[in-house]
């Protein structure tokens, strides 16, 4: 069984995807999820490119990784500066990551038109940058940008760029199909040539412009590559990157390569949907392995056959990747997923209780209304506790009112919320203002409860996302609100859905408060 190293670049290459913008908190949540999943390398971003990435690396430095190595990404040093004087190289070292990935030009066309330096000078840039970093960082990878296009145009020079990195001590030569247009047969032949030529380990970084990124990654491994770079759900600029959600099970289940543990593979769907939610995107129903339709069967011969032997129409057991079989005419699947969550939440609940099926039915009803619990597991835990009688109410809403007024053009709107709650000490009636209607409501809710429950002073609202669920319905469409909250020790996500954005926000805020109070 061959060991294949998985390198995730969702936070850098994936964040360049249209309609995707990760906050620092988003990136930290994804890092934690990928580390738990067992990804070998997590590329955090380009520390010299923007303040957000620099801030991310400062905060990520406090996180204790269990499985992954955090990686910083950057370019070869500027031709006009010495490598030791280049600010972007200094920023890479300041990130304090155990791994640095450097990309350099391997296509002579780019050397001439983009860098505007001689071919020899480009080789010096590659060698000097890798050598300088290798003396200061445990692992340095060289991303050979546009390598397959460069090899096609001038194979001799393209190989010289790899030699420059190899002679400087790089730990891996990563061949990049940057324009994403290379066919699998050509990738296989080129990778094979590189593997035969160099003793340094070889990796693959494929883009998906010709819908071949996953196939190109697989054939590269078959040709001798030992590192695969990609993103969760194939996020990335233009048509995206190699989709690790497809690459990983293909390597593990089809090629029998050792890239992730069998137990962690069962988290595949959860990881996919988590990143989709944090990205504020829609789930791809027909996504291989993890989509809702990946193992769905709709009547007739198929259903009859899979009820006897699932392998008649399923290429793997869906449970291996955290998915489940669905018979669309009588969909009662999903019990195993709930049982797994009960175990994760450490709840003392009988998994054979008929109430587990009640939760499955309730979840399906809520999902049909637009709720999603990936990224909002606190709301899911509350739902389970309510069903099993483990939940207790800390307050009842009598009513609230939110006012937004704008007195004249050019001035910021004024937002005020009034709330009335019934608590064990009687009725609380308070008001508060805020930067917006949701912030005002949150402030009023806390103001009413903090006297009775002072632990709520520890809770901070970390992130707030709104997603329109039915794009064609304009301003009357349902929205899903995802809230991330935290205290000194924990972070948790909650969700609300309504045609009214204030009501959806209220649902998520109440879940967040109740979750904190139940934890104590």
Set out the fold topology.
Layout: E1 5-8, H1 24-37, E2 41-45, H2 51-60, E3 69-75, H3 87-94, E4 99-105, H4 108-115, H5 119-134, E5 139-145, H6 147-153, H7 155-167, E6 172-177, H8 184-197, E7 202-206, H9 213-222, E8 227-230, H10 244-254, H11 262-265, H12 268-278, E9 296-297, H13 300-308, E10 326-327, H14 335-344, H15 355-369, H16 377-387, E11 396-405, E12 414-423, E13 426-434, H17 437-449, E14 460-468, E15 479-486, E16 491-498, H18 501-519
Parallel strand pairs: 1-2, 1-8, 2-3, 3-4, 4-5, 5-6, 6-7, 7-8, 9-10
Antiparallel strand pairs: 11-12, 12-13, 14-15, 15-16
What would you note in describing this structure?
The chain has 520 residues and is of the alpha/beta class. It contains 18 helices and 16 strands. α1 runs antiparallel to α12 (268-278), α8 runs parallel beside α9 and α9 (213-222) packs parallel to α10 (244-254). Helix content is 39%, strand content 20%. The protein has three domains: 5-260, TIM Barrel (Alpha-Beta Barrel), CATH 3.20.20.70; 335-387 and 457-520, 2-Layer Sandwich (Double Stranded RNA Binding Domain), CATH 3.30.160; 395-452, Double Stranded RNA Binding Domain (2-Layer Sandwich). α1 (24-37) links the parallel β1 and β2 (41-45). The strands form four sheets. Strands 1-2-3-4-5-6-7-8 form an eight-stranded parallel beta barrel, surrounded by ten helices.
């Amino acid at each position: 069984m061959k060991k294949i190293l998985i390198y995730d670049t969702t936070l850098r290459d994936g964040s360049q995807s249209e309609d995707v913008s990760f906050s620092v908190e988003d990136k930290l949540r994804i890092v934690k999820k990928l580390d738990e999943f067992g990804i070998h390398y997590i590329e955090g971003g380009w520390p010299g490119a923007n303040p957000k990435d620099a801030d991310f690396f400062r905060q990520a430095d406090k996180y204790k990784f269990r499985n992954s190595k955090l990686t910083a990404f950057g370019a070869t040093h500027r031709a006009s500066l010495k490598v030791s004087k280049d600010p972007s190289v200094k920023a890479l070292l300041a990130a304090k990551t155990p791994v640095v990935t450097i990309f350099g030009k391997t296509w002579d066309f780019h050397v001439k038109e983009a860098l505007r330096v001689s071919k020899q000078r480009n080789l010096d840039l590659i060698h000097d940058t890798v050598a300088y970093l290798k003396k200061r960082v445990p692992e340095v990878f060289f991303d050979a940008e546009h390598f397959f296009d460069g090899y096609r145009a001038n194979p001799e020079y393209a190989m010289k760029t790899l030699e420059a990195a190899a002679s400087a001590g790089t730990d891996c030569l990563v061949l990049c199909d940057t324009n994403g247009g290379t066919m699998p047969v050509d990738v296989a032949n080129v990778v094979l040539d590189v593997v035969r030529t160099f003793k340094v380990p070889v990796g693959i970084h494929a883009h998906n412009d010709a819908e071949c990124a996953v196939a190109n990654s697989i054939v590269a491994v078959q040709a001798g590559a030992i590192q695969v770079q990609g993103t969760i759900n194939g996020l990335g600029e233009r048509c995206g990157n190699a989709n690790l959600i497809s690459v990983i099970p293909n390597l593990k289940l089809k090629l029998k390569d050792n890239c992730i543990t069998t137990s962690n593979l069962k988290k595949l769907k959860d990881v996919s949907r988590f990143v989709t939610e944090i990205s504020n995107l829609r789930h791809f129903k027909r996504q291989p392995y993890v989509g809702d339709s990946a193992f769905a069967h709709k009547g007739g011969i198929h259903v009859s056959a899979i009820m006897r032997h699932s392998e008649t129409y399923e290429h793997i057991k869906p449970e291996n990747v955290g998915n489940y079989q669905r018979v669309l005419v009588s969909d009662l699947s999903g019990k195993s997923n709930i049982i797994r969550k009960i175990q994760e939440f450490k709840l003392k609940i009988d998994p054979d209780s008929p109430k587990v099926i009640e939760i499955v039915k309730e979840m399906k009803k809520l999902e049909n209304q637009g709720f999603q619990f990936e990224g909002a597991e606190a709301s899911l835990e509350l739902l389970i506790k309510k069903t099993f009688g483990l939940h207790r109410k800390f307050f009842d809403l009598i009513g609230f009112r939110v006012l937004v007024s704008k007195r004249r053009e050019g001035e910021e709107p004024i937002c005020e919320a009034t709330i009335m709650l019934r608590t064990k000490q009687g009725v609380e009636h308070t008001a508060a203002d805020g930067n917006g209607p949701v912030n005002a409501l949150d402030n009023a809710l806390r103001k009413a409860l903090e006297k009775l429950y002072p632990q709520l002073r520890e809770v901070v609202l970390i992130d707030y996302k709104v997603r329109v669920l039915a794009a064609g319905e304009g301003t009357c469409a349902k929205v899903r609100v995802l809230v991330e909250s935290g205290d000194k020790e924990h972070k948790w996500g909650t969700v609300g859905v309504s045609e009214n954005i204030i009501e959806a926000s209220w649902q998520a805020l109440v879940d967040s408060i109740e979750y904190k109070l139940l934890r104590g």
